[in-house]
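ugh ok so i messed up the first submission bc i forgot one of the chains. this is the corrected input, ALL of the components this time, i swear. 672 residues overall. if the numbers dont match what u have on ur side tell me asap before i send this to the collaborators (the ones from the other lab, u know who)
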Amino acid sequence: MEKILRKRPTFADYLEGIKRHDKIITAQAITLVESQLPADIDLAEKIIEAILPLTGNSIRIGITGPPGVGKSTFIESFGEFLTHAGKKIAVLAIDPSSTLTKGSILGDKTRMENLSRNANAFIRPSATGNTLGGVTNATKETILLCEAAGFDVILIETVGVGQSEVAVRDMVDFFLLLVMAGAGDELQGIKKGIMEMADGIVVTKADGDNVKRAQHAKLDLQNALHLFNTPPSQWLPRVVTSSAITNLGIEDIWKMIEQYADVTKQNDFFSINRQQQDISWFHSSMQRMIKKEIVDGIASAEKIKELEEKIMAKEISASAACNLIVKMIKQRFAKI
Amino acid sequence: MEKILRKRPTFADYLEGIKRHDKIITAQAITLVESQLPADIDLAEKIIEAILPLTGNSIRIGITGPPGVGKSTFIESFGEFLTHAGKKIAVLAIDPSSTLTKGSILGDKTRMENLSRNANAFIRPSATGNTLGGVTNATKETILLCEAAGFDVILIETVGVGQSEVAVRDMVDFFLLLVMAGAGDELQGIKKGIMEMADGIVVTKADGDNVKRAQHAKLDLQNALHLFNTPPSQWLPRVVTSSAITNLGIEDIWKMIEQYADVTKQNDFFSINRQQQDISWFHSSMQRMIKKEIVDGIASAEKIKELEEKIMAKEISASAACNLIVKMIKQRFAKI
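and heres the new structure output, hopefully the right one now
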């Protein structure tokens, strides 16, 4: 069992491999954008810059739902349908726990057994990150790499820990929420705020004894959705019942997403939304990185902790504590 | 019409006046915390620090709703009810447009005519701020000053521009959403996400021809609220119909808020929530101020704009643009 040391690809290797839609090189490029090593970061940036003109020609779909709702099973059915329809699909699974379990790559491939053997599908769990519930800079760059590598549909799966949904919502075109009908006629496990982000809702497991319950849930959800204003996309979210066993709803879900793309491309929301997503990502990652690089560099975790305790003990107001840190930082600047 | 120049109060004057529950001194202290002058900022911080032990003994209620829903009329009725019940109330109106119109102080007092003449009520429009839809550091400090000045109930009114609701939600104990029944049986004008933040919903104008419609709306809203998980407060949001003409619901709304306080004080959510609000305010205002002081100091608005345009033209990725700014800032630090 000798380990074969592969030669590291060069910038040209990466570029040419991605353009040729080579899955192995694309996977290596993703590993590179996930790397924290300074040399890797520079090379990754050069690659992203070079492939940027090749990006944008996909539909980016966020998929979320509570544990047990059947996300992997749904993605397997949906992915099979899409590849049969001639699409090349990439599945990016955001799993904040993967840094702990280390087993998620194998896990995901096992979870989506058929899809992982499908030549037109590419499954990639995010290996990194505790920020934003597992969503990192790398996730955004990975989408770009997959687009440049010729994938038409990019599915981004999140596990439903709240923060990751918001972060994923801000990098996709269409956000799909999976729910299942509960024991009564209520829907269990929908986090506050998540439903409002959805462009489409799928009631899963609408088969066997569960069909009626799922249809009830669909009506409830439709009524709830009616209460809200028309969003800026002008798209009114829809509810579809679906079954991975009977394949009920799978085609309808894709039709819904295609219609969404039609509507929002016609009214320009599609491209405006992507531009706004990029701009707000720029600003939010700037704030995050500056906090990390500067505040954490000057004000130690202990100092912050100490101030937090003073705030809780009402010895200092939150604003005064903030001013104190800002003053410390400004003093460092003043010395230049 | 001579203008009388009042002597500026000293630190001791402020402190003694607030402790004596003097409305004029309290109003002057609020003006001080709203000031941007360095000398005022220092004095304001000293005052806030001194009064901190006197704060916390109020219930902080956020009130929002779409234009035309009858927020002022509701606050007038609700405020009259509360003062009759022996409460001292402060009304803080967040109006992001007030810097433009300059007329909102007069405007608010005219809007709430009876309340403004009530000795146990204090009406204060926020005069400042474009950040977070009119919500600033000053809003948080103003709440503290009002508490120290003996107000039992603090009502914070926002105008429904989205960002201000989230900011206000994060500084109150109870968040009340006002809606009205629309032309059909749908509710018009509820912004996505706002409903999910509400601890209570009031359907206004439930009088005359509108009673049936309001009751329908109440049922619709109750059904929609049932879909969501129990929030961390363990409090299940309720819907009340109300009329400022017949005073229908006014007492029920106060009872609901008292029950909320009972429940959340018993399960400790009340105090834990306030502590968490302070800590997250500390962190978010740190990020905001550092962005303002440091990024804007080094990376000019033009540089940011230039990068934004490059991002939109796909000449650079959002992450690379962010890295560029962070590098600029780190270089300044490296020179020390």
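quick check: The first strand of chain A starts at residue 59 and ends at 64. that seems consistent at least. The radius of gyration of chain A is 22 Å.
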